[in-house]
Amino acid sequence: MDFIKSSNGKVYYELSLKINPEMADVISEICFDNLPCEGVILAEEVYKDLEMVSTTEGTLKVFLTDKADVKGVLSEQKKLLKSRGFSDEDIGSFEFTLEVKENQDWSQKWKEKWDVTHVSEKITVVPDWIDYIPKSKDEVIIKLEPGCAFGTGTHATTQLCMLAVEKHLKPCDVVADIGMGSGILAICAKKFGAGYVYGCDNDETVIDVAKENALKNGVECKFEFNTADNISGKFDFVLANILHNVLAEIMPNLKNILKNNGILVLSGILDEKKQIVLDAIKKCGLILLEENHKYQWTSFVVRREK
Fold first, then answer.
1. Which H helix or E strand runs over 144?
2. How many domains does the chain have?
């Protein structure tokens, strides 16, 4: 998920943070939530179609509007991650440098790093500014500009969810996307024939981004600021691409919004943390249908039987 939001200031502060590359998306979100962050570059992973073509040793570049208490915030957030079950190895060293830089048009830097992504033979994610000719009449093309929202289609966790939609979604299914970010999974579900698609997120800033992306793709989805515990409806198909600890915590809520025989797709799970989610699946009496892997990430497809 290589993206960055532009800044209009004369100077900015460039934070170079040493992390475990597998946690880049998680730590990026922490930076957006806890620092005066205008954007990030996940420079450690560059994709061409489905293949990673280059990688660094895990330096996350974070662009700040002022210095803030970077040391204090990073120390506090690292302790919080460890309290949630992540090890030092999972997180990375969190060593950092902070430099003052002249401002640039960071939105263009972001666009230079994002290419067309072929998720499968049938699913293709296309940046909004790239002209793309479909390979076949059956190709499902998702036009996207993430803005400040997570989800560009390049990350393994997102791709695992999209592949599950392609395989398991039935025509006219009623779908929920919990933590929808850019709306990419909701849009994907609608393009595969879902009858009604609802998406929610606990970050108000992404709601308009998701709505705009749905409009770009000519599909109708309902997006709103909400969480799974406040949803009263029932769904045939639910997507949740969230951290393993959050998935475990909200599993009863996810089960509650599933119809009997409904399908739940769970992603955002590091391989070494999958047992935490499996335990929650078992505790809730959900039936495991599939376990899928991509790079260091796991996804599960489960069913509610009663």
1. strand 140-144
2. 2
